[in-house]
Write a structure and sequence with these properties.
The protein is an all-alpha fold. The chain is 73% helix and 2% strand. The relative contact order is 0.11.
């Protein structure tokens, strides 16, 4: 007989598969399967990075005339995106790919994107006053960490769709079409709002010259 690693009476005969330690043998079954967790993970990540965060950015850039409502809505939309992304990350680490999975860059990029997103509402809450000396530095940091989160998150959603296709998780073609349509719609809305913003700025300049 051979003593199993760790002691505790785990003795087995040569060639016999050793039993797992008691805490592992009595571990309750998972709440959901890996495939179900993957689908929910994808849904939450799309909601966070493709819908909520871009909407929050659009509000911050084009709705500032609705002071102070725009900031409150922007803050809560971004906070909802953070909750969605963090829960999606938890699903991935718990049911799909835990820490230490070697070479899985999709998860590594996703982790960085979520961390950048978590910074946003914290940084927004610490927003200095308009006349503060560090206002410009704060604005640049907040803007570019937010854009970095959206860029990395969008990249990860697209690679996630590829992974879903490889594993045959649901109707990937329809999901890809929905994601593409959402991105296209939000980009189109941003282009329209940006053009209107430029026109309004030019009109104000002309009025000031008169």
């Amino acid at each position: 007989q051979i003593q199993a690693p760790g002691g505790g009476g785990g003795v087995h005969a040569p060639g016999e598969k050793p039993q797992a330690p008691a805490p592992l043998r009595h571990r309750p079954p998972p709440v959901m399967s890996g495939a179900t967790a993957a689908r929910l993970h994808a849904f939450l990540m799309v909601g966070a990075f493709i819908v909520l965060t871009p909407v929050g950015i659009i509000i911050a850039r084009y709705m500032k005339h609705l002071e102070p409502l725009w900031f409150q809505v922007h803050f809560y939309v971004q906070s909802a995106a953070v909750v969605s992304a963090v829960f999606a990350l938890w699903l991935a680490l718990t049911y799909m790919y835990p820490f230490g999975t070697a070479g899985y860059w999709h998860g590594q990029v996703g982790l960085v994107a979520v961390l950048l997103m978590v910074i946003q509402p914290i940084n927004g809450y610490m927003r200095p006053g308009k006349m503060a000396a560090n206002r410009t530095a704060w604005k640049l940091f907040h803007r570019y960490t937010g854009l970095g989160a959206v860029g990395l998150g969008t990249l990860n959603v697209l690679t996630g769709l590829q992974i879903a296709y490889e594993h045959r998780w649901g109707n990937v073609g329809l999901s890809t079409l929905a994601v593409g349509a959402t991105i296209g719609g939000l980009v189109g809305l941003a282009v329209i709002l940006e053009s209107r913003k430029k026109v309004e700025e030019e009109r104000i300049k002309m009025d000031n010259k008169v």
